[in-house]
């Protein structure tokens, strides 16, 4: 497994590629491509890895991923179960800023959009308050053809660059900081961690997955993610814990702690608060207030 360098099949007739996916699950490998992409998760849940970011994604989310930013939409395990009835639905727009559309970006009227596209290189999540408007504009682009599609896409970019409350997906731009061989290692690390997070993963075990010594692995992982492996593993575990709480799939918060890979509730509570900003009991209370 590796960071797959995709070639998005943009025809000579279009500078904007529209792709609608209706599949059993999202593409299951870390990958990147030359195009900037805007993805609307119409249906589906899982974990998004983009640059140094790892977080839950769910239906309704909209993400802007920068050109050559390694990313992975990892569907939840239930999507891979035998006879699973789950499926995903997503609408994605691709644009190569070094292709024909790049010449449009040089027009003076597009100066604000050009600056905005520089920001997207780290990856962005559209705020929930703007999702409905962006969804409608993406549907217009999907249905349009030729120059009308192009006009709608420019309108979408003008709207996106006026939004102020984006969540940045990565603390650094990774276009040139990860090679093919390094991407292979990163994908193997991510896949192993997400498959075994409930277990006691030792430093030697994960270093063996990356074919590195423990010391070299620590340096390597910190270099490419700007965090320690333990911090990343805890993010995976808390991510899964939040999913169980939201799905109301638990007997007690202590049970959630053990099912998420923690050996005791005290450590779980401390790490949960550090990552989410609040203890699990408060997280549960606030969630129940929202849904009731």
From TrEMBL:
Domain HTH araC/xylS-type, residue spans: 187-286
Q: Which InterPro entries match?
A: Homeodomain-like_sf, HTH_AraC, HTH_AraC-typ_CS, RmlC-like_jellyroll, RmlC_Cupin_sf
Q: What are the GO MF terms of this UniProt record?
A: DNA-binding transcription factor activity; sequence-specific DNA binding
Q: Which PROSITE patterns match?
A: HTH_ARAC_FAMILY_1, HTH_ARAC_FAMILY_2
Cite the SUPFAM superfamilies for this sequence.
Answer: Homeodomain-like, RmlC-like cupins
Specify the domain of life of the species encoding this protein: Bacteria
**Keywords annotated in UniProt:** DNA-binding, Transcription, Transcription regulation
Q: Which PANTHER family match?
A: ARAC-FAMILY TRANSCRIPTIONAL REGULATOR, TRANSCRIPTIONAL REGULATOR MTLR
What is this protein called in UniProt? AraC family transcriptional regulator
Query: What is the organism field in this record?
Result: Niastella caeni
